Amino acid sequence: MQKHVGMVFVPIIAVFSLLVGAEGFGPERASAAATVAAASGPAGGSLLADIQSSQKLKVGWAEWNPLEYRDVASNSLKGMLIDMAAKLAGDLGTKPEFVEDSWATLASGVATGKFNVALEGITTERAKIVDFSHPLYQTAFTAIVPKGSPYGSWSDLNKANVSISVTTGSNTDQLLTELSQAGKIKAHIIRIKDVGAGVLAMASGQVQAYTDQKDALISVTSSHPEYRLVTGSYGVAQFGIAVPKGQPTFKAAVDKAVVSMLKDGTVKELLAQYHIVGNEPAAAR
What we know:
The chain is an alpha/beta fold. It has two domains: 18-25 and 139-236, D-Maltodextrin-Binding Protein, domain 2; 30-137 and 239-281, Periplasmic binding protein-like II (D-Maltodextrin-Binding Protein, domain 2, 3-Layer(aba) Sandwich). It is built from ten helices and 13 strands. It has helices at residues 32-39, 47-54, 80-91, 106-111, 154-157, 171-181, 195-203, 214-223, 248-263, 266-273; strands spanning 57-61, 69-71, 76-78, 96-100, 117-121, 130-132, 137-146, 163-167, 188-192, 209-213, 227-229, 236-244, 280-281. The strands form two sheets. Strands 1, 4, 5, 6, 7, 8, 9, 10, 11, 12 and 13 form an eleven-stranded mixed beta sheet that branches. It has a two-stranded antiparallel ribbon with strand order 2-3. The two termini are 29 Å apart.
């Protein structure tokens, strides 16, 4: 999930030829031990103290409208996750500095110290190299098909003779890989560079469906009524804040800020403000 969802996926269809193989998730899968070691920062130092001293919280972000994107008219960053990151920085007594990256490498960026945090989907694979905060919100994993498709549900699609496209390196990709290894995914999964290319693969008939988080798929179908959601799902996606391993004081402060955003209604308000349909706030503990 890397480019604008829905109304802007058409301009990026030119990258459709950049299909990728079915192996791995790129940088996040490699050298986990090295990246975790690099994340701990200066020996004996406190990342929270360093951030507060510098008055700068470095936040990794990647294009995904309406969650986080660069507004062309103002050249400024906007989106629900941008606002959440700004609120987090304020709660930590500092200011955000946004560092552009890609969805496939956000976790490794946190692990190697390229930035301090990233707001992204919580997955088993990413949790090998970063820690995650208390969840912010959650949605389901499902799929879309052309309106004339004979497939009506996820169980209809999950067959050996069906091909489904997914954005490589996304949390959707990672969950599908885990489920495939467990023998729970029968369909043939085609990994493609971004959302636009994945949807085009479906539209052109190369695959029968495109799979992603329900909120992202609703954004696509709202702009393109020629596609529809199937019923059912194969899992739940939770979004949280990735933080470096080995920084318990920093993680505790981030957890406190997240729970505060849930209790005071900030998460619910931002979901509504940005018309993020298909998501719900996580339970505050």
